Sequence to fold (644 residues):
Amino acid sequence: MTAFLIRRLLFAIVLVVFAASAALLLTRLAPGDLTSQLGPGATQAEIAATRARFALDRGPLAQWVSWAGRAATFDLGESFLYNRPVAPLVRSAALNTAALAIVALITATVLGLACGMVTGSRHDAFSALIRSASFISISIPPLLASLLLAFVAARTGWLPVGGMSSVNAGEMSWLTWLSDVAWHLPLPVLALALPLAATFERLQSQALAEAFQQPFVLAAVARGVPRTGLILRHAWRVSLRAICGVYGIAIGALLSGSFVVEYITAWPGLGRLMYEALRARDIYLVAGCAAMGSFFLAIGTLAGDLLLAVVDPRVREADAA
Amino acid sequence: MKRAGIALLVTVAFAALLAPYLAPNPPERRFQNLLYAPPTRIYVRQAGFRPPYIYEWRVVNRLERSFRESRVRPVPLRWFTDGRLVTAEPDNGAPLLLLGADAYGRDVFARVVYGSRLSLALAAIAAILALIVGAAIGAVAGYAGGRLDDLLSRVSEFVLVLPSMYVALALRAVMPLVLPASTVFILLALIFALFGWPTVARGVRAIIASERQREYTLAARAAGAGPVRVLRQLLPAARGYLTVQGSLLIPAFILAEATMSYVGLGFPNSTPTWGTMLQDAANVTLIVDAPWILAPAAGIFAVVLAVNLIVQGTGRGLVQLGK
Fold:
């Protein structure tokens, strides 16, 4: 287990360093740089000074070396767009994205598990209804889901259409602020969670149906365990494995999907920040976002693998061997 | 299930192919007095039944984008004229707008059918590229085994881990932002293929690695066939797998194009694709007033649903969402 953790940790470090460096060099080698943001009225001296400030006057390699040296001490440089250090910017955006992704993951898991247990164990009108609802929402990816939900929200006025908090959020006490954020959460969360929940429902449904074929379930039936107890106590623990197996992929999909959801619903997360940074060629901000995003990814896949090991003893043994 | 999916996909493909025939108006044509006009209503009754006809939309309030029908003159629909299935009188200010008009007064239905051409063609070409590259790399890895196999497998695993949308975004964003549509097409196809090949390669590698153990491979080798010749015997075993993967990649790539164009990193806005059309929907108040600009979303939904129906029928995994 320790060897496994160390290996994964090393992989995480390599991933973060590689992603951030690649982002830095790509942005550097791209045509145009952040001085185009100064506007047409900028003088030669201003442009030269800005280039010097962001080390754009040095070679790409020299810039990477000096950036990497500082990044090792968690100094990620400065953002041109916001005129602030990159680290706190990235941190707050990452927290927003993490909040969105975690709530979406929990929603998707609870919803998907519950529906999957119904469709996997019964064959009636209710289960057929859930099945078709799931089949439709699996075909509505986050891009479409967030557009449709924004449309419904704007039309009915039930939920705020975008953003993470209201305009006057600065004057609120923290409790009202929290409820304000909670009010803004459902739209982006549902847009992210519904397709994922549908995927989970399908997996859980199949896995549960397969679990019912297992001899130990037959044994439980023979012992006289009632049907509900059978599902709740025996069958579903085995079937959990199917969902945990795709958790790693699900987290990657959440990260990818969160970009478009953040963009459409104006959620101030990592995806939006990275997009702005990329368009403005804000070089250190791009690198910072890439580092944070890949860190999330590494954590996510690790969490998925650990979860699988917790649920399924067979995986633990394979790693110990 | 499977049959319904195939029927749906064929319908979409035919609509794309027959776009000039199906669209009542050219997709670029701007009707200056019909900005955000609602879908034209088609009537068949007036003192008993009569051939379908429409009324002309008249602007009531330009600012509020409200329209009313001018009931004085029924405009009959004209069938099979000018090489179009059906049209009205676009030159007399009474075009047939099946799905309303967009911000420039262009026919949304015409743009959806024309847009499907580029969206589908891009997805199909990117999918074919991904299949070719993936099959080649997978076949080499599965056949060679050993170090080369390890290396190629690691590389494909690494690409699989990356959140494709972000990397695609980054790769596109570092190119000049304004490019002609044909350059964007090639660029996006290459970027999408870059993310499509690893899944294909992994599957093909597994198939080739197991086929390599079979007797016919041994026989081919014994007969003196070189690696290339043997691989040509082995690859047909992966045909079924490649078909399924290809059909899974297409909706994923359609979505990727839509996302890129939506955020302004795809095709230029004047080119109709499902993504550039959705860009108009970025303004929420506009969606409420003119919900028909969401029409391309229905096209995307149809393709994803069709592919899900097909792969559901074959018992394989569903479309990986968001990836």
Observations:
- The mean pLDDT of chain A is 83.
- Chain A touches chain B through 51 residues (CB under 8 Å).
- The CA atoms of residues 168 and 177 of chain A lie 9 Å apart.
